[in-house]
Amino acid sequence: MKTFKLIMVCFFVSTFSFANVSINEKEALLAIYNSTQGDQWNTTWNLNSPIETWYGVTVIDGKVIEINLPFNNLQGNLPQEIGDLVYLKTLNVGFNKLKGTLPISIGNLKDLTTLELFMNEFEGDIPNEIGSLTNLEILKLYSNAFTGEIPYSIGGLVNLKELMLGSNFLTGNIPSEIVMLSQLQKLSLIDNKLTGNIPAELGQLVQLEELVLSSNEFTGDIPMEFMNLNKLTTLMLSDNNLNEDYISVINNTPNYIQLQLSKSSIVVDRD
Question: Three-class SS of residue 245?
């Protein structure tokens, strides 16, 4: 009888744990598991255990708020059902083997503050819907195979602090809407196929500490507005089609920015 009672207690605890998470969220997690070959992950999920015990999943008050599965051998696509995880604050699936396009349903994740999809094989356009993630602070999509232009909707990410889109195949200009990212501290677009002049609007992003634009096809000159970037310590512009060959400046002193050219050196003192 005691054994029977213990089994029943365990059953009810397990059932109660599952019941705390909505059916939509459970089905979304299962869709991720199935579409990314969960049975072959480095650390897999025991689907018979409570969801809050699943590796990389954080549940608070019955809501799935974090998925952290980097370096876990995820293979395949992210399913549309990921948009049903509406309470998600962090999604990190970096350093895996994910491919295909990003589902537009990712724009449903309004609470998301961190989105890290770097070092995968994603392709196609960065969906416009990503611009609706107004709480986003960190967006890392580097080292994939994204194509097309940086979406104008990116200007909606008004709380963004880090925008890392390097090592893709992005084309076109840097959209002027980037001026809306007034909190931006790090911007990396290195190793793409971006063209046109470097927009003067970047000089209005006064919180910038790192600006990495190397290995693109930018033309023209460095905007004089860059003198407004008082917090800038890292500036990388090499390997473009600019009017001068600029050498990277890294860990510069905060009092001035030194733009070293192939033929001369310009120092703009901010004191």
Answer: coil
Tokens linked to 227: 């003198």
In a domain, 90, yes or no: yes
Which pair of structure tokens corresponds to residue 124? 């196609």
pLDDT in tens, 68-103: 999 999 999 999 999 999 999 999 999 999 999 999
Residue 228 near residue 252 (C-beta atoms within 8 A): no
- The tally of domains found in the chain comes to 1
Sheet holding 75-76, edge to edge: 75-76, 97-100, 121-124, 145-146
Owning domain of residue 65: 2-230
Q: State the CATH number of the domain containing residue 66.
A: 3.80.10.10
Q: Of the candidates 74, 112, 70, 115, which has an alpha carbon nearest to the alpha carbon of residue 95?
A: 70
User: In terms of Cα–Cα distance, which of 117, 103, 112 is closest to 85?
Assistant: 112
pLDDT digits 0-9 by tens, 164-202: 999 999 999 999 999 999 999 999 999 999 999 999 999
> Is 171 contained in some domain?
yes
Task: Provide the Cα torsion 168, 67, 138, 87; round to 10°.
Answer: 120
Q: Is 241 among the domain residues?
A: no
Quick check: is 239 in a domain? no
Query: What is the predicted pLDDT for the residue at 257?
Result: 52
pLDDT, tens digit (0-9, with 9 covering 90-100), for 112-169: 999 999 999 999 999 999 999 999 999 999 999 999 999 999 999 999 999 999 999 9
